[in-house]
Each structure stands twice: as structure tokens, then as C-alpha cells.
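pinned: reference chain
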Amino acid sequence: MKKILFLLLAVVALSGCTSFVTHPVVTVEDLNVVSLDPTGAGMELYLKVKNPNSFDVKLEGYSYDLRVMALPLAKGGAREEVNFPAGGEADFRIPIRISYQDMIEILKRKPDPDRIPYQLAAGLELETPVGEMTVPVQRTGTYAIPKEYRPSALFGRISDFFKAL
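pinned: its C-alpha cells
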């Protein structure tokens, strides 16, 4: 009977250990276009993760859902390991791929290129000394298309190319 009581107390104590872990603070720092190719655009979402705990926390994977002008734009995730040091902070990037077809759907809505609304929902899967936890990341904001990637600039480059021929 004592063994059962001890095991029961151990299970209750261990299940409450996650309350001793403070969720890391995740902020969205930036969203940038990093490449254009024949199939679409590559973007990177830059996050900063502050770990307030007295122990390291390790990212094991993530998932994300990005909407632009309320349209589902990109959804995905990956298994990736990143260490967030105790009492410190670390930068982390999530690569996002967007097809031209999806970009055309956004352009059909005639957005202001300086203020395109987006919503991000993500989850970071973390390993701590007392078990796994998922930290939700929610962000709503606006995105300004860099001038060199705006349609007018791209058409200008194409026009310059044909003039050079």
C-alpha cells in the first residue's frame, strides 16, 4: 500500500512540474522576401525567443499557418533542433514558400503595398527538463512589400532586359 501511495504521489508531483517552467517569450521580429524564382517567392519569418528559465530549452519542431488579407497563404512545419539558452535569447527563422498563384490572388484584392494585413498562428514544440510543451505564437500585423519586389519594379526590370537585347 505504501508503494502505491508513493507512486501516486510521484505521478502527481511530476505532472505538476511543468508549472515550474515559464513559457519562453516569442516575438515576431520581421518577415522578409529572400528569393524569387520561377515557382514563387521564398520568405523568412524571423522570431526572437527569450528563455526566462534557469535551464536550457530545446526547440524540437514547429508548425505555422500564415494568412494574408484573410486568405490562407502558407501552412507547414518542420522538425528542427535549436537550443534556447537559460536566461538568454536566440533568433530563429522559419522559411516560408509562396507560389505566384497565391500572390496573384492577393493582388486581385488590390492591397495597399505598404500595409498588407497578415495573421500568423504558430506553435513551437519545446523540450524542457520536465517534459515537452508547445508555446503558441499569435501575431496580427501589416507587411510592406519591399520596393524592389513590387510589380512595377519587376516589370521595369523585364522591360530593361528586353531593351538591352
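why pinned: The longest strand covers residues 71-84. The radius of gyration is 22 Å.
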